[in-house]
Amino acid sequence: MSKKGLKRLFGKKAIISLAVFIVVLTSSALTFYFTSDIYTLTRLGYSFNESVAISKTIDKSDLDLLKMAGYIDGFSTAISDPDFDATKLKDYIDYYTRYTSEDISFADAVAIINHDCASVEYQLAKRYINYYTQYQQDRLDFATAKVIIDANGDDIDYNTAQTILNNDNFISDKLVQYFDYHKKYSVLSIHNLITLVNKEITIIDQKEASILQALINENGFNWDNYNRYRAYMDNNPSFPIERVVSDINNNIDKPSAPPSYSGARPADLSKGNLILVNKQNYLDRNYVPTGLVNIEAAYGQLQVKSEVYTAYKAMADAAYQAGVPLYARSPYRSYATQASLYNNYVAQDGQAAADRYSARPGYSEHQTGLAIDITVGPSGTLGGFANSASYVWLMQNAHQYGFILRYPPGKENITGYMYEAWHWRYLGVDVATKVKNSGLTYDEYYARYIK
Prior knowledge:
The protein is α+β, with helices and mostly antiparallel strands. The protein has 3 domains: 3-143, no CATH class; 152-249, no CATH class; 265-450, Muramoyl-pentapeptide Carboxypeptidase, domain 2 (2-Layer Sandwich). Helix content is 52%, strand content 7%. The chain contains 23 helices and 8 strands. The strands form 3 sheets. Strands 5-6-8-7 form a 4-stranded antiparallel beta sheet. α1 packs across α2 (12-34), α5 (60-69) runs parallel beside α7 (89-98) and α15 (226-235) crosses α16.
């Protein structure tokens, strides 16, 4: 509408009044804006939209903190984070301004203060935050993240770190060493690396770590023999790990010192027919095997376990068909019977000599009901059996019926007993065949494959 139209509609005075009103209104609006928080924030460098958002989040009393700090990059984004706590604004700003020269982000400052790390240097605190953020979805708590980072575990994934921390043998003071070993020697299992660190065993390189891993995992490995294993390996570098463990466990490195009764432990009855009874594994004085049966006169005398007797009869029948007789002279013996025999031998030859050919009570295989002393007949002698055709036949065929020669020649330093051509032990066809084919004594085979 034209000026003339306005004058005709409102009159000259009304138009002047309206103009004055507009000027006053505009002036008031401008005055309000230039004196508002939004204006203050835009002057600090925030955009209008950022200023509006900030003014809605923080109190007027906190504006002075922002004025003193100046423009804070990322501030408007940080305040929209659910973890932002306006009551901690001063702490956020103080920490942020303290480390602005280190390119700290305000979001980091918020996270660091929220996790009570105000006294922690920024670079370390940032490592805490980064690790925690990376594995937060795996239910990692911040306190644990700090423990891991303080031990230089930044590059160790949380699942591995957690496995180390939860190990039964974990020692908190050694965490840095655990992580160091894991980073250097990844071939080691967590359990083994913890054990090695706890025992203060130094590893030179990855190759040695691989050897140790194989050694520790070998059947029959015993930490008490660790130094002997290592020395034996150094002296026999071509020997496989399984032979090293077996040889040392059977004192091959001590040819003048056959197994003794020192440190003996109860035999493992859970092994059934594979039970090992020797100078290191004994039976209780009250132990009597189940299933004992009488041996028929045509096959021998006394008693033996039923399963053993069945196998022995089949073997004896086959031997008879081949023209060689077998006779079970001394099968099962009770603890008391063995005690009587042993005491007589000691009285006759002295204990040192008796220990080479007779077991002390509780340490005899005969008490298991699984061993039989065999001769060529009722009048045959034990000492003469090695020169018989029956012995030759057994050496070739006994394993097919589940029996092995228990004390072979030249193995006293392993078995603890002199060569006994007459002493045969039942293991079952499968294991007896494996023992025969291995060329090992049963003591060695048990330590390597059964124990």
